[in-house]
């Protein structure tokens, strides 16, 4: 299918959807160029591969996967059969995690047009999306909504702490465990030996960032969560990886002549991949969602290469949709009353998180009795100020 045919098919699908869903999606009509619609509904009658334009020339990376490691465990090379690149296995689904984050059903309201504009621009330009906003406005869940709607599988989540480094996002290497395993083998075999290159893959695992940069045919979704907590050098270190689209694993580079291809674990449960010559180069640049509570400034060079989106506080319609998606009780009069109370208290308290509303609605609607005089005191505890919980997203 040509790019022109893909565009016509994509635009036709949009116009069909907008006519039938306009009553359910009062936030506005989708723009013709949007790929991500912001509804949470998976694509239908079309695949992302068919409608996603090719990357700009300066964002095309063209990575290929290594071929399978042969039975002797000491060989392997880039697959060039028929000049077609191979790819790692398709990412696993994790609907349970997505449902926990998003609810079992789509929201039923379209995202703010600015959000959809910037998500689609990030998709087309292959650029990271830096998402800011108050705690609890849904910054982290945006990554899961993108993945569910575009059918991109399990979200790779990298939670940032003050101890996070670029290497911890790329891969982990258990050198001590490898030495201990060699010592155990020496004791059982009665023959002194050093750890050999043949076993190194058992002690090396790619992290979320490293897995996202594998040469997948379709982009993976990478959530870099709470970037405010990062070390001062991490933004610039990360920028280099995003610009190059590749990284090296020194432990594998050193043994590339003896072991040109090594099978290692990835961040996906029970999944592995083959690394050739100790280097990884992406094929489809990942959909990168970086969340920040706006507690620190980032280097200008980093900001220049990101698209920046600030999420507003959810309004009554969106809060009702969130309640319906998670609990299916938005029409309950008690839920509607709580939504209004939540909005008023959120304004007084300087902002509350949507999950605090979900907690209150669940407490009320899951019980058969009407809350008594003690309810206000309990609600005060559930809807506490976020000053001391500003790291929550």
Describe it for me?
This protein is an alpha/beta fold and 393 residues long. The protein has two domains: 48-58 and 87-182 and 196-310, P-loop containing nucleotide triphosphate hydrolases (Rossmann fold), CATH 3.40.50.300; 316-382, no CATH class. The protein is 38% helix and 11% strand. The chain is built from 15 helices and eleven strands. It has helices at 3-21, 48-51, 95-102, 113-125, 139-150, 166-170, 175-189, 208-212, 234-244, 250-253, 300-304, 316-327, 333-349, 354-365, 375-382; strands at residues 129-132, 156-159, 171-173, 204-206, 221-225, 246-248, 261-265, 272-276, 279-281, 287-292, 307-310. Strands 2-5-10-1-11 form a five-stranded parallel beta sheet. Strands 3-4 form a two-stranded antiparallel sheet. The chain has a two-stranded antiparallel ribbon with strand order 6-9. β7 (261-265) and β8 (272-276) form a beta hairpin. The model is unreliable at 1-27, 69-85 and 389-393 (pLDDT under 50). Residues 1-31, 47-97 are annotated as: Disordered. InterPro entries: AAA+_ATPase, P-loop_NTPase. It comes from Streptomyces iranensis.
Descriptive tags:
393 residues; 2 domains; two-stranded antiparallel ribbon; 15 helices; 11 strands; 38% helix
